[in-house]
TrEMBL record:
Gene Ontology cellular component annotations, sorted alphabetically: mitochondrion
GO biological process, one term: fatty acid beta-oxidation
Alphabetized PANTHER family for the sequence: ENOYL-COA HYDRATASE-RELATED, METHYLGLUTACONYL-COA HYDRATASE, MITOCHONDRIAL
Organism: Ursus maritimus
GO terms, molecular function: enoyl-CoA hydratase activity
Family recorded in the similarity comment: Belongs to the enoyl-CoA hydratase/isomerase family.
Protein name: Methylglutaconyl-CoA hydratase, mitochondrial isoform X9
SUPFAM superfamilies, sorted: ClpP/crotonase
CDD domains (UniProt xref): crotonase-like
Encoding gene, per UniProt annotation: AUH
């Protein structure tokens, strides 16, 4: 397949050849069964990870959530406003299982629309970015879609990805990335745009664009050095090295690392715990006054999300 890509004429052939090299290099690092979005051969997801979404819970109860290999475009991003004791927490769940949660034109459009609504919603206090697909956070740009683009379309598409990631970075409330699986290229850049990152020890993270003879285009060259320091960031970008959760914690890329649980959502559970801790911090709202009054009256505050 790589040979066919090399034989293709012009810029398209160059892009296809580079894409094949990136797929082969990254899949070799990640182990058997893994394939990047747009891979031209092999299983789409490691069978053990895919099956985990359907496995029965302990004690023989009904199967846990399942994940379809095909999703309607309107379901590629699920926005959930949590209720009761979690009121004020919003979860952005990426749900493109068939494409490893990679960034398509449609997903970027949906993310932009969701972020635009959230930044002006005074009832939102904390946002969690997660995956609805087991074993995957986000594998970056959808290479299968990109290879079909005209050269004139690629630049604007990358600019849109960068703009959405910047919008997430500029949200006026705390943001948490829950990394329960693969976060490569733009997927890691998305996580870097969040204020806090937590990951499962089994997660894989890296800016792998240099394997395709390009550089990270979604802000990774700026945000990674801020997180872990200039020298180490350059080392990781130049080498396209992929880190697991423990390694990412050791270099300061993430704040917390968890052993993955049976449901495959250990990072999300930790993110939810952190989000609950952040809920009382509502300085620009009416709840601030309720908090001060409750302190004066020596009682528990009765927040209303206003």
């Amino acid at each position: 397949m790589a040979a066919a890509a090399v034989a293709a004429p012009g810029a398209l052939g160059t892009l296809q050849a580079g894409r094949a090299r990136l797929v082969a290099a990254c899949c070799a690092r990640l182990g058997p069964g893994w394939r990047l979005p747009g891979s031209l051969m092999g299983p789409r997801v490691a069978s053990a990870i895919w099956a985990r979404g359907w496995a029965a819970a302990a004690g023989g109860s009904a199967p846990r959530r399942g994940y379809s290999s095909e999703v309607k475009t309107e379901d590629e991003l699920r926005v959930r406003y949590l209720e009761e004791e979690n009121r004020g927490i919003v979860v952005l769940g990426i749900n493109r299982a068939y494409a490893k949660n990679s960034f398509s034109k449609n997903l970027i459009k949906m993310l932009s629309k969701a972020v635009d609504a959230l930044k002006s919603d005074k009832k939102v206090r904390t946002i969690i970015v997660r995956s609805e697909v087991p074993g995957i956070f986000c594998a970056g740009a959808d290479l299968k879609e990109r290879v079909k683009m005209n050269p004139s379309e690629v630049g604007p598409f990358v600019s849109k990805i960068r703009a959405v990631i910047n919008e997430i970075a500029n949200l006026p409330v705390p943001t948490i990335a829950a990394i329960d699986g693969l976060a490569l290229g733009g997927g890691l850049e998305l996580a870097l745009a969040c204020d806090i990152r937590v990951a499962a020890s089994s997660a894989k993270m890296g800016l792998v664009e240099t394997k395709l003879a390009i550089i990270p285009g979604g802000g990774g060259t700026q945000r990674l050095p801020r997180a872990i320091g200039m020298s180490l960031a350059k080392e990781l970008i130049f080498s396209a090295r992929v880190l697991d959760g423990q390694e990412a914690k050791a270099v300061g890329l993430i704040s917390h690392v968890l052993e993955q649980n049976q449901e495959g959502d250990a990072a999300y559970c930790k993110a939810l715990d952190l989000a609950r801790e952040f809920l009382p911090q509502t300085i620009p709202t009416k709840d601030r006054l309720e908090g001060l009054l409750a302190f004066k009256e020596k009682r528990s505050p009765r927040y209303k999300g206003e």
